[in-house]
Specification:
158 residues; 4 helices; 7-stranded antiparallel beta sheet; single chain
Length: 158
């Protein structure tokens, strides 16, 4: 029985949702050292530059910054090392096919603890062009303005 229950989010990659069109998400485990886990439990990680790739039938997470553990000494880890992802063989095959189709990449969306185990949510994503980003922002702004107009109209009716 795990000591912890539920989900505790350590870091999210909000920039990924802005820069990429998310197609499908997967949950993957991480192979970590002891000081990396302790640093994550302190809530310290950065996913902004991170990406995942498949090499030799195995998935890896690269350029994710997990700072060194403050109480760690010579046992500390490198902050931006390549970490192995734990996925089922079928999932790795699906991901490799999606990436090889072209235009797609693997992006980490969030890093969290699920029942005490470190997990990362990775997504098969396609890069947005500048036009798409502007259009998304414009749609969000229009929706906000419409909601604001509805609220003021509802207040007038009271």
């Amino acid at each position: 029985m795990p000591r912890e229950r539920g989900e505790k989010v350590v870091a999210t990659n909000r920039r990924a949702r802005h820069d990429y069109l998310i197609e499908k998400t997967y949950e993957a485990g991480l192979v970590l050292t002891g000081t990396e886990v302790k640093s994550l439990r302190q809530g310290r990680a950065n996913l902004t530059d991170g990406y995942a790739y498949i090499d030799g039938g195995e998935a890896y997470l690269d350029a994710v910054h997990i700072p060194e553990y403050s109480q760690g000494h010579w046992t500390n880890h490198a902050a931006k090392r390549t970490r192995k992802l734990l996925l089922h063989r079928e999932e790795i095959v699906k991901l490799s096919h999606a990436i090889s189709a072209g235009g797609y990449t693997l992006v980490p969306l969030k890093l969290y603890f699920s029942d005490g185990r470190a997990k990362v949510e990775i997504a098969v994503a396609k890069g947005k062009r500048e036009f798409d980003k502007r259009q998304t922002l414009r749609e969000r702004q229009d929706k906000r303005e419409a909601e604001r107009a509805m609220r003021t109209r509802n207040r007038m009716g009271d």
